[in-house]
Amino acid sequence: MFHVAADTVVGENPQDIYDSNVGGTKNLLDAARRAGVELLIYTSTVATMRWIVRNCQMSLRMPVGRDGRHYKRSKWMAEQEALNAAKSGLRW
Protein backbone atom coordinates (compact mmCIF):
# COMPACT_ATOMS: atom_id res chain seq x y z
CA MET A 1 0.00 0.00 0.00
CA PHE A 2 1.27 3.48 -0.83
CA HIS A 3 0.47 6.76 0.98
CA VAL A 4 1.62 9.65 -1.19
CA ALA A 5 -1.09 12.29 -0.79
CA ALA A 6 -1.48 15.42 1.29
CA ASP A 7 -3.50 18.58 1.36
CA THR A 8 -1.16 21.49 0.67
CA VAL A 9 -3.60 24.41 0.77
CA VAL A 10 -4.43 26.14 4.03
CA GLY A 11 -7.83 27.72 3.59
CA GLU A 12 -9.82 29.95 5.89
CA ASN A 13 -9.93 27.26 8.57
CA PRO A 14 -6.42 25.91 9.32
CA GLN A 15 -7.95 22.92 11.16
CA ASP A 16 -8.99 21.53 7.76
CA ILE A 17 -5.39 20.78 6.79
CA TYR A 18 -4.83 18.94 10.09
CA ASP A 19 -8.03 16.94 9.61
CA SER A 20 -6.89 15.99 6.12
CA ASN A 21 -3.19 15.35 6.65
CA VAL A 22 -3.07 14.05 10.22
CA GLY A 23 -6.56 12.58 10.52
CA GLY A 24 -6.39 11.15 7.01
CA THR A 25 -3.04 9.49 7.70
CA LYS A 26 -4.28 8.06 10.99
CA ASN A 27 -7.40 6.69 9.29
CA LEU A 28 -5.31 5.13 6.51
CA LEU A 29 -2.91 3.54 9.00
CA ASP A 30 -5.82 2.13 11.03
CA ALA A 31 -7.44 0.74 7.88
CA ALA A 32 -4.13 -0.80 6.76
CA ARG A 33 -3.77 -2.59 10.11
CA ARG A 34 -7.36 -3.87 9.99
CA ALA A 35 -6.91 -5.08 6.40
CA GLY A 36 -3.68 -6.90 7.22
CA VAL A 37 -1.53 -4.82 4.87
CA GLU A 38 1.96 -6.31 4.96
CA LEU A 39 3.90 -3.16 4.04
CA LEU A 40 2.93 0.50 3.82
CA ILE A 41 5.07 2.87 1.77
CA TYR A 42 4.69 6.24 3.45
CA THR A 43 6.07 9.34 1.77
CA SER A 44 6.54 12.50 3.73
CA THR A 45 7.98 15.87 2.79
CA VAL A 46 11.17 17.77 3.31
CA ALA A 47 9.00 20.21 5.28
CA THR A 48 8.96 17.77 8.20
CA MET A 49 12.72 18.15 8.48
CA ARG A 50 13.02 14.50 9.50
CA TRP A 51 16.75 14.80 10.06
CA ILE A 52 16.05 17.50 12.67
CA VAL A 53 13.52 15.23 14.37
CA ARG A 54 16.18 12.54 14.67
CA ASN A 55 18.96 14.83 15.80
CA CYS A 56 17.24 17.56 17.81
CA GLN A 57 13.99 16.05 19.09
CA MET A 58 11.84 18.60 17.25
CA SER A 59 8.68 19.55 19.06
CA LEU A 60 5.49 21.22 17.90
CA ARG A 61 6.56 24.40 19.71
CA MET A 62 9.59 24.89 17.50
CA PRO A 63 9.06 27.35 14.65
CA VAL A 64 8.54 25.70 11.29
CA GLY A 65 8.55 28.76 9.08
CA ARG A 66 6.16 31.60 8.53
CA ASP A 67 4.76 30.48 5.17
CA GLY A 68 3.06 27.13 5.24
CA ARG A 69 3.50 26.57 8.96
CA HIS A 70 0.22 24.68 9.21
CA TYR A 71 1.14 22.48 6.25
CA LYS A 72 4.58 21.72 7.70
CA ARG A 73 3.25 21.07 11.18
CA SER A 74 0.44 18.85 9.83
CA LYS A 75 2.94 16.80 7.82
CA TRP A 76 5.21 16.45 10.86
CA MET A 77 2.24 15.32 12.95
CA ALA A 78 1.19 12.84 10.24
CA GLU A 79 4.71 11.42 10.20
CA GLN A 80 4.47 10.93 13.97
CA GLU A 81 1.31 8.85 13.37
CA ALA A 82 3.29 6.67 10.94
CA LEU A 83 6.11 6.29 13.46
CA ASN A 84 3.61 5.28 16.15
CA ALA A 85 2.02 2.75 13.79
CA ALA A 86 5.45 1.26 13.16
CA LYS A 87 6.03 0.95 16.90
CA SER A 88 2.77 -0.98 17.16
CA GLY A 89 3.82 -3.42 14.44
CA LEU A 90 2.83 -1.98 11.04
CA ARG A 91 5.72 -2.34 8.60
CA TRP A 92 6.31 0.87 6.71
Outline the fold blueprint.
Elements: E1 2-3, H1 15-35, E2 41-42, H2 50-56, H3 69-87
Parallel strand pairs: 1-2
Given the helix and strand composition, which structural class is it? Answer: mainly alpha
Please count the beta strands (DSSP E, at least 2 residues each). 2
Number of separate helices: 3
Count of structural domains: 1
* Poorly predicted tracts of residues: 63-67
Portion in strands: under 5%
Helix fraction by DSSP (H/I, runs of at least 4): 40-55%
Shape: elongated
- Kindly provide the radius of gyration, computed on alpha-carbon positions and rounded to a whole number of angstroms: 13 Å
Average of the residue pLDDT scores: 78
Outline the biggest β-sheet: 2 strands, parallel
Could you tell me how far the N terminus lies from the C terminus, measured between alpha carbons in angstroms?
9 Å
Strand order of the largest sheet: 1-2
Secondary-structure element series: EHEHH
Key terms for this structure?
mainly alpha, single chain, two-stranded parallel ribbon, 3 helices, 92 residues
Give a quick summary of the entry.
It contains 3 helices and 2 strands.
Structure report:
It is a single chain. The protein has 92 residues and is mostly helical. It has one domain. It has helices at residues 15-35, 50-56, 69-87; strands spanning 2-3, 41-42. The chain has a two-stranded parallel ribbon with strand order 1-2. α1 (15-35) runs parallel beside α3. The longest helix has 21 residues, at 15-35. Mean pLDDT is 78; it is low at 63-67.
